[in-house]
Every structure is written in structure tokens, then in C-alpha cells.
Amino acid sequence: MEAASCPYLFKEWQIIESEFNPELLAQSETIFATGNGYIGMRGNFEEGTPCFFNGTYLNGFYESTSINYPESAYGFAQKFQTMLNVTDGRTIRLLVNQEQFDLNSGTLLNYRRVLDMRRGLLLREIEWRSTSGIELLITNKRFVSLNNKHLALFSYSVKLLNRAAEIQFCSLLDGSVENRAAEDDPRVGSKLKEKALVMQEIIREENFNALSHRTENSSLSIVCGMGHNLVCRNLVVTKTFVNAEQIEVRFTLSAERGETARLVKYLVYYTSLDYPAEDLKGLSRKAVLKARERGFESLLADQHHYLDKFWQESDIMVQGEAELQQNIRFNIFQLLQSAGKDGITSIPAKGLTGEGYSGHYFWDAEIYVIPFFIYTNPEIARRLLEYRFHILDKARWWARKLGHKGALYPWRTINGEEASAYYPAGTAQYHINADISYTIRKYLEATGDTEFLLSRGAEIIFETARFWVDLGDYIPSKDDSFCLNCVTGPDEYTALVNNNTYTNLMAGNNLEYAVEIAARLREDKPEAFGRIAEKINLTDSEIAEWQKAARAMVIPFDTKLGIHPQDDSFLAKAFWNFEHDKNKHPLLLYYHPLEIYRHQVLKQPDVVLIDFLLGDRSGAARKKRNFDYYDPLTTGDSSLAPSIQSIMASELGYSDLAYGYFLKTLRMDLYDIYRNVQDGVHMAAMAGTWLSIVYGFAGMRTCEGKISFSPHLPVGWPLLQFSIRFQNCLLQVKICRESATYILLAGTVLVIEHEKRLLALHEGEQVSIDLSARPEAVLFDLDGVVTDTAEYHYQAWLEIAREIGADFNRELDEKLKGVSREECLEILLQHNKLSFSREKKQALAEKKNYYYLNLINKINPQDLLPGIAPLLKELKKEGVKTALASASRNAPEVIRRLQLEKDFDVIVDSGKMCMGKPDPEIFFSAADQLNISYRNCIGIEDAQVGIEAIKNAGMFAVGIGRGLQGADLLLYSTSELKWQSMKEQFIKRNASGKVTPPEARNTRERWEA
User: Fold this and answer.
1) What distance in Å separates the CA atoms of residue 696 and residue 396, rounded to the nearest whole number?
2) Class of the 774-787+861-991 domain?
3) How far apart are alpha carbons 409 and 464 in whole angstroms?
4) What pLDDT band is residue 982 in, cutting at 50, 70 and 90?
5) Contact, 881 vs 775, CB < 8 A?
6) Which of the following is catalytic: 492, 651, 921, 948?
7) How many other CB atoms are there within 10 angstroms of residue 28's CB atom?
8) Residue 604 and which of 387, 524, 530, 874 are 20 to 30 A apart at CA?
């Protein structure tokens, strides 16, 4: 359940905690975490207390432990990895006249803590009175360097406000740290049951101290070193104390009233992941010395400079929305703080802010996080993708272990080995291979980084393609289609199924791209391709097999519902009872997996996700049907869900629904919506904020090297502004209520598409596009709009009714308007409670068409309805495009007899439509063929189902006749159709593209019916 409010003050560039609330301690330790992609420090207080859990983490530094199965089997993952809580170096205790400062003692007079996202600085200011009456002003500053991944700095300043006193700073390195033990919730804590760091050496030198540890099982070494600068007026006594697990350096001095003493601490971490173990101590010593020479302020200025450049290209500005602005920037800032930037680490699901999911990397990195970096900081995106090449050999080994060729990437991992003990929702999620290939493709399309392709990318793409061909089979009962059986898609509430639609489509994309890359490299870089092919023993016959498998890949589709089933068996399951035990979420904590698996219920989008990722492969109507079916079934138990739901709701015109999902992903952590932010932030949701804005509200898409925008700005947002890096260009996008402006800030030339309109921008050039809805096309139904063939249909159906002994009348005939021939027959049969075989029904439908064709032979231009001829003439004169969107398959013949072939730019082939009206498919198809945005179309219909179809397409609906519900303009007859009046009414309504969202429960009931 969503929190009622955010506990932090709304400042656009800051997270501010204005009072100390012990109940928010766990949450705030996560929120005020600082990091740089290598070091991550929870926002614990310098004094060490009060504390929920004290954590410092190094990205990729882990310990491994055996996974103990009561009943094991071949191929189960054997080792679990845990990101370690490493040596604590942040602790600085303060004593005043021997009384230790603690927020739980004395009197707190004033408190303020600020995470400054412009400067990358954590600031705390406290006024405190000791039990003996001494009043202090304490100012703490902390930052983890974004310029030097090994370095963190602390400034601890004390000012005596009312009397002189002795001050002691006690600075510690503490090696007695442990990880937080896991609870029953599999998303929380670690599997380690004991201390993981083994002490190797305690280093005690003048102004340099360090602790050296190693891990028992992963055989990794770490050195944490510290040095200090103390600024004060009086003599200082410095002593160092050492025990088995700690080094304490104690600074004692006397200060007068009004004087300030300040201790600066320089902390470094070096591990054997980067350097030989024997070099770590020397590197730490050198780094501390260099940092002391530079000083706190100088290094903080470097931090500010780094972030100035980062925000210049990564910021998203929403004008006039302080709360939204703060949330957006916080989420982006945390992405920067947690993303690995060294090519050997990725981004943990909880970032470097907590121990949820044990610091593992998942598919979240590729599908959710890396897109943000591709289009804002491609250098970081490359480093994150380099990690996948870094572990490629282990992925090859894992594939062989499971009996396959190629490479299989682990579902969750740190070191490249599979760490998921629950294979149905772990190893079986083979789609991670395709997710990685997909993201590499997006990176290469956006950057043109040929060097990465040749040195790393091609090999990953080829090895993952090789895996798919070996995993799948050509199944005779599926017409020899290529099938991927016993797999799990993104939705973890459905497992071990055949032909998961997401997996199959993404695998096909992986295979096709591998074939494309092989052909391109063979042509453009033959020597490089030869080296790669020789290295991995790649043959022409194998590449041909990839192409064959991709073309034969089975893609589940239900013709009755017009949707992609999530898999072969999904639609055969019962619906989940959402009304029962509404508070039992997430379901995985309250129900056995088998109970969940046997129902139509989703943890997160699956088919809807593929409609976003491979949106160019599905038409708008199919996307809408998929969304309408699956969204009510989606629990949102996963933090990955709302951003994808928001993006697709935006695309489909469900603006209110889109904004609601956006707020959920945006506020996930600052509002602690899932009540588990104490375990770490939700990286996918944070990245999902950027995705929801850029892909959702700005409507950005990239496909085959092209970039396009179709804005859907939320009501109440006066301005949205952000920048995109694409093909060595920097594009600034400004969207307001009235216009969209594109400015090419850097780069020679960039071609973009705005709502199907091509724009070529040169460096320094800007183009503004009016976003006002404007009628550019009119889509006509045939019967009752262009001409009246209704009587011919009636006579044909009447003849069929006589033949089969059925009742048929004018009232029933009204229900057949705008409906396909086959659906009309079903309505007739159901009305008469008749049932025939499929062959019999097909024969009857064909016979009805035969009767109808004979009847329409007499149609001629004189049969045009009043007002249509002059309307078509005026539309052509005004340059307005026209299309015929009739459910009748005989429409082309009728138009030929009316001699209107040249008056319509497009005549939609109704035979190619999957669903009839009120499904909007035929109107979507007409607009697509005309290359006109849906919101700029006017549809004219005389049937209720037709009006509903137009409105479902987000178009302006003109109704002809009486009793039509929902039409934007209702006319008595076609003689009243005047272009100028339609245009005026269209502009007045200002077609915003908004479609009323379907109510989830009613949608589900409709499908059940």
C-alpha cells in the first residue's frame, strides 16, 4: 500500500530530513546512501548509533557459499554469492568533556540532513546540548568520489556554542562487520550465517592506517585504508588503539567557546578484483596521501564539476512540479551512484544501498537501467555491457553444464555463475540471453560503436543465438514450427511453460540480429569476422540454421480474442480471485507457487512488455487488446511492473492510467510504497521513472537506427525537457502543451520523426511542431455512410434464414451493422439457438456473400448517399486524406461500381483484420496506411459498434443517424456532412488522444464472457 506522504521536504535538487524520527531510521539509511558505482555507503550516522543496519558495499566484491538442497538434482546451481558488507570506515565518534555525542542522549535542539544531488554531497547539521549543558553545532559532510572510485571523504566539524570544553574525535576502521541475515522473504538479506571477512593484517603507520582482509571461499582480498587532516587552533594529542578487529585513531584537543574544530577523514578501498593482492596496501597508502594533499574542498569541487556535466545531459525538467522534480532527480542520481563503471561490474537490483537480493545482477540491468545510460551517458552503458563479455566464458560453461551449445547467462549472479536456487523462476528464465542481445543492439544502433561490436558484442550475440537453436525443437504437432519448451518468461507467477510469447519473440529477435551482424561483418569487416568465426568455430551452415529457426519460431496467438496468449497454456487456466484477501501481497509470501502457477495472474507485464520492446512488430489494435486483457490480471507485486504499464498506457491513450502507474514507479522509494526500502532502493523502478517519461510521455522510440517521438504530456505539466544522445548527436527535447521543440545541440545532422513526420536537424538548429490536434484524414464506413447497401445485406441474410428455418427480422438486422460476415452468422444462429459445424457455417457465409454479390450488381454512382460526393471533392481540394474502413469484404467492388476508386487514398482490406468492430483495428489500419496520427483522424459511422471502434482508436467520431452513443458529432443524415463544420467541431474538442481507461474488473468479466 502506498504511503500517505513523503517524509522529506520537497526541494528540486535536495532530499531534506528536517527532523530526526527514529521510526524512519531504516528507510532513511537507504534514502541517504551515497555511492559511485563501486563504493556504496548506507546513510548511517558517523557516530554509528542509532542504527538499523550499518552497511558499506563494494560492487562485485562477494563471498560464495554452498547452496544446500535437501533434494538436489543435476544442473542445480551450487554456489550462492553475496555482496559483502565490508570494513566500516565511516565511524567518527565525538566526545565532549568525556560525554559521547549520541542522538539518543542529551537534548537535540535542531536537526537537518540533506542529500545534495547537484554537488553529490551528504550534509548533516545538528545543534545538541549535552547532559552537562554544553551546546554544540555539529556539521558533517560526506561524499563518495565520482572521479576516483576508490575514495570516500568525511568532514566532521564541531563548534562550541556556549562554553569551552575538551573535544575528542575517535576515528575507526572496523573489520568486525557482518551481513544482515536473510528472513523468510527471499528478497531480503543474505545467506551468510557468519562473518565473511578474515583478518590478514593490521597496518599502523604515521597518518595512514589500514585493515587487510580476505574471503574464505571466493579468495578475494581487500584493503581499507584511512588518513586524516585536523583543523583547529590548539595543540592536539593523537593516539592510536588497535584490537583484533579495529583501529581507532583518537584526536584530543581543547577549544574555547565559539571555536570550531574540524576533522577530515580520507577513506579508500582497494580489492584484488582490480589489482594483485600484494599491491593493495601500497595503492591504498598512495591514494590516501594524494587525497590529503588535494584536500576536502578541492576534491568536492571536482565532484561538483562531474555532476555539472552529468546533469547537463541527464536531467529531466518538469516545470512547476517541485515534488515530481525531486523524485525524478533522486531516481536518476541513484542510478549514477550504483552503476558499475569499470567493465567488470554491473548494477545490483538494489543498487549499493542495501542487501536485498544479496547484491545480485539480473536482467533488470539490460532491460530497465542500461537504456537510460545509452541515451544519456553511453560510456557508462558500454561499461555495463562489457560486464556481460567479462563473464561470457562462464556463460559458455553454464550452457555446457545444462547440455547446450553457445552461452547461457545466469539469471542472478555477481561473479558470472548462476546463483538462483529456485530454477523455475531462475535458470528457466532463458530470456535473459535475448535481453542482453537486445540491449546490445539498442546500444549499437544509438552509438555506432563498431569497436565494441568487434571486440565484444558480436561474440555475445553469436553465442546467445547458438544457444537458442540448441534449446529449441521443431515440433511436428505444431506444424514443424520451432518451439521453446519448458521456459519461464518475465512473469514469475507463471513458470515452466511452452512457448512463452515474450521469450519466443525475443529469441527470434536475437537470432535475426545474429544473422544480420554476421552478414554485415562479412561484408564490411571480413578480416575481423574471420577472426571471430575462427575463435568460436562459427560456420555458414550454423548461421543458416539461425535464420531457419527465427523464421519458423512459433508465436502463440488466439484468433478468438485477438491477443497473444502469454504461452501455450495460459488461457486454459482459471482467473485469480482478486477480491479475496486483497491485502495478501505479494502473493509469493502467502501462496504456494503451484497455487499461483495454475491461475491467470501476473507478477509483472510479460506480453505487454514485449509489445513495448518490439513494438514495431505489433499493430496498435493488437497492443490494445493485449493491454486490455493482461493489465487487469497484473498484481504489480514486482517493482518492475508500473513503468512498463505506464509506457503502454501512454501509447494507447489511457492517460489517467499511465499517470497513475508513473506515480507509483516514481515514488517507489521516497514514499516507501512497498514498505521495504530499508533493504535497498528499487533500481528498476528508478530507471523506470526515466523510461516512463521518455518512452511514455514523450513517446520516444528507436528502431533500426531511427528515432521518433509521439508526445503524450500529462495534464498539468506545463513543460517537459530532457536531452538524448543518439548517433553522435545531442538532441534537446522540449514539450509543452502547445508545441514540441527539438534542438540539435551537438552533431552534424540528425533525422528524427515526430508523429510520422520526418524532420532533419543540423547543429544549432531547432524546429517547433504545433501539438494542437488537426484533422488530417477522414475515415469512412461504407454501408449507411457512403452508400446504402443495408437492404441488400438484409435480403441476403433473409434468404439464408429461410434456408435454415431461422427467424430473421429488421430488429435483428440492426445488430449486424458494422460486423463481419462470420460474426453476423454467429449472431443469427445464437438468436435462433442453432448450432452447425465449422464447415457448414463457412458454407453458409459464402452462400450469403453469393446472394449479396448478385444483389449489388445494380449499384451505380446514383446510389451515393446525399452529401458524400461534394464532401469527397472538398476533402481532396483541402488536401485531407481519405480511407474506407468497412467491415465488408466486398467494399472494393462496391466502390468500383460507385466509381470512387480515385476518391479514396486507401481502402482497407477487411479480410486482413483479426477482429471486427467495436475493435478499433480497421481504423488503426486505415490511419497507418495513410501515415496519419490517430488523434488527427475523423471517423464517420452509422452503427453503434462503429462509433465505439472509432472512439477506441482515440479518434474523433461522427455519427450518422439517431440513438448513437458516444459520438463527438451526431448528424441526422449524410446530407449534413460538411467539412468546415466537422473541422470546427474537431478543433473545439481539441482531440487530445485521451481514451477512457477500461475498468479492470469489467475488462476481465468481458473476457470471461
Assistant:
1) 37
2) alpha beta
3) 9
4) very high
5) no
6) 492
7) 26
8) 387
Supply φ then ψ for residue 745, to 5 degrees. Answer: -75, -30
Q: Are 495 and 453 in contact (CB under 8 A)?
A: no
Q: Identify the CA nearest to 154 among candidates 305, 335, 331, 288.
A: 288
**88 contacts 172 by C-beta, under 8 angstroms:** yes
Q: What letter would DSSP give residue 179?
A: P
Q: Measured between alpha carbons, how far is 645 from 623 in angstroms, rounded to an integer?
A: 12
Residue tagged 516512463 (cell numbers): 692
Query: Which residues lie closer than 8 Å to 401 by C-beta, 6 or more apart?
Result: 75
Phi-psi region of 348 (alpha: psi -120 to 50; beta: other; left: phi over 0): beta
Q: Which CATH class is domain 790-858?
A: mainly alpha
Residues 6+ apart with CB under 8 A from 37: 59, 149, 336, 337, 338, 339, 340, 341, 342, 345, 347, 352
C-alpha cell at 633: 490480471
- Residues 6+ away with beta carbon under 8 Å from 479: none
Contacts of 350 (CB under 8 A, 6+ apart): 356, 357, 359, 679, 680, 681, 682, 683
Per-residue pLDDT, 183: 65
Q: CA–CA separation, 668 vs 684, rounded Å?
A: 10
Record the cell numbers describing residue 574, joined without a space. 482459471
Neighbouring residues of 372: CB distance < 8 A, sequence distance ≥ 6: 314, 332, 335, 687, 690, 691
C-alpha cell at 454: 568487434
Look up cell 520537497; give the residue: 10
**How many angstroms separate the CA atoms of 26 and 175, rounded?**
22
All three cell numbers of 252: 584530543
135 labelled catalytic: no
Residue 50, preceding peptide bond in cis (omega within 30° of 0): yes
**Residue whose entry in the numeric block shows the C-alpha cell 521469450:** 503
pLDDT at residue 547 tops 50: yes
Is 997's pLDDT higher than 50? no
Q: What confidence category does residue 814 fall into, taking pLDDT thresholds of 50, 70 and 90?
A: confident
DSSP 91-159: -EEEEETTEEP-TTSSEEEEEEEEEETTTTEEEEEEEEE-TTS-EEEEEEEEEE-SS-TTEEEEEEEEE
**Domain 32-312 CATH (choose: 3.50.50.60, 1.10.760.10, 3.40.50.300, 2.70.98.40):** 2.70.98.40
Query: What is the spatial distance between Cα 1009 and Cα 998, in angstroms, rounded to a whole number?
Result: 16
Strand bridging mode 107-116 / 14-17 = antiparallel
Residue spans per domain, the chain = 32-312, 774-787+861-991, 790-858
